[in-house]
Design a protein that fits this description.
single chain, 388 residues, alpha/beta, Rossmann fold, 2 domains, five-stranded parallel beta sheet, four-stranded parallel beta sheet, 43% helix, 18% strand, elongated, binds (3S)-3-methyl-2-oxopentanoic acid, signal
């Protein structure tokens, strides 16, 4: 059967993410594609909270010059296929103006090219591996790269214990972020004059780390550095302590959530983790964010929530400027997506992360970074204590 030309054109444009006639919906749909299920939800959960909080916070202040926003959530799960599917739904079905997501760099390397080809701007809320902004012209991030965040943890560990000499490094070899972060950790350790005595690999799906822990214990190291995700990383720390390791531990960004407490329990105590966000960041914007977030959730905002909030805020700040040039409801969706990408990269933003902007590739410019240490009160309750 012959397909009428008009129908063919419609199918084609739908496949590209917009139909010719698509306008921007009201309330303005912003896509959130993060992990709401799977082990990766230990990390994604805080992003959902941060994004939902941003929606409420922004709409309470008039949204985009009087027009409310509406977040559209698509669960990516923890793998590449889930992220691709979520991004496709956000782009073609939900017709979002832009996407905040995905959770993992490992997912970003697969899903971001889809948004880039469809000319839909993406802000990575937690994609810290090397190379993320370079995926394409429509890809930027509000999550500072491991190269600038991770070294702070080693410097802080040396401040706490200047006698550290020998280091063991462990990383999840099936995860792009973990591979990238361990590279930074190993380079920094050597640059600080430390000896990397052993490098051990594992998988994010592993639950038994006896082999790696035995290798670490054989080297008599003073510091162990773990680059993995929340469940594997938490179990690894727990088994290190249970098998008798007594030295310092640095966890990477994949362990940067209180959702690891049920995994490593009292053994989480003492883990040192670099932070791209601090509730103490003194800007008026952050202090108001912290006040309202704390009032609602009875605890200070964690990094992943603050970064997801920032992703939504940056999209909204940029949309406000475009809306002043031409009311958002009058734009063609495909034109607005392109203009939004340009505006995101051009702007300056006062966010919970402080004053931020982007370079022309979409890499984040952010001024201040921090280090926290986990203090467990018992097997269940703990806090991230920020170090000076
Ligand atoms: C990345 C990360 C993860 C640990 C975020 C949850 O930094 O995948 O890039």
């Amino acid at each position: 059967m012959r397909q009428p030309l008009a129908l063919l054109a419609l199918t084609l444009s739908a496949a590209l993410g917009t139909a010719a006639a698509d306008k921007v919906a009201t309330p303005v749909p912003i896509g959130i594609g993060v992990a709401q299920t799977s082990n990766t939800a230990l990390l994604g959960q805080e992003q959902v909270i941060g994004a939902r909080f941003a929606e409420k916070y922004i709409n309470a202040r008039g949204g985009i010059n009087g027009t409310p926003i509406k977040l559209v959530f698509q669960d990516t799960g923890g793998d590449e296929a889930g992220a691709i599917n979520a991004f496709q739904n956000l782009i073609t079905k939900d017709k979002v103006v832009g996407i905040v997501g995905p959770t993992l760099s490992q997912q970003a390397f697969s899903a971001d090219p889809i948004a880039d080809r469809a000319k839909v701007p993406v802000l990575g809320p937690s994609n810290t591996a090397k190379g993320i902004p370079q995926i394409g012209a429509f890809i930027a991030r509000v999550s500072a790269p491991v190269a600038v965040v991770a070294p702070n943890a080693i410097k802080q560990a040396l401040k706490l214990d200047p006698k550290i000499k020998k280091v063991a490094v462990l990383y999840a070899q099936n995860d792009a972020f973990s591979v990238s972060e361990t590279g930074t950790f190993q380079d920094t350790a050597k640059a600080q004059g430390l000896t990397v005595a052993t490098v051990q690999k594992f998988l994010t799906t592993d639950t038994d780390f006896t082999t790696q822990v035995t290798a670490v214990l054989n080297e008599n190291v003073d510091l162990v550095i773990v680059s993995g995700l929340a469940n594997d990383g938490g179990n690894l720390v727990k088994q290190l302590r249970q098998l008798g390791y007594k030295g310092s531990i640095i966890g990477g960004n994949g362990l940067n959530t209180s959702n690891i407490f049920p995994v490593c329990q009292q053994y989480c105590d003492g883990i040192i983790i670099a932070q791209a966000y601090s509730p103490a960041q003194p800007s008026a914007n952050n202090q108001l964010f912290v006040k309202e977030y704390t009032a609602q959730y009875k605890k200070a905002p964690p990094q992943f929530a603050a970064q997801a909030f920032t992703g939504v805020q940056v999209m909204v700040d940029a949309l406000r400027i475009l809306d002043r040039k031409k009311k958002l409801a009058d734009w063609e969706l495909s034109d607005l997506r392109v203009a939004l990408n340009t505006q995101i990269l051009a702007g300056k933003y006062n966010t919970p992360l402080g004053a931020i902007s982007f370079d022309k590739e979409g890499e984040l410019n952010q001024a201040a970074f921090y280090v926290a240490q986990i203090k467990m009160k018992d097997a269940k309750t703990g806090t991230f204590v920020f170090l000076k």
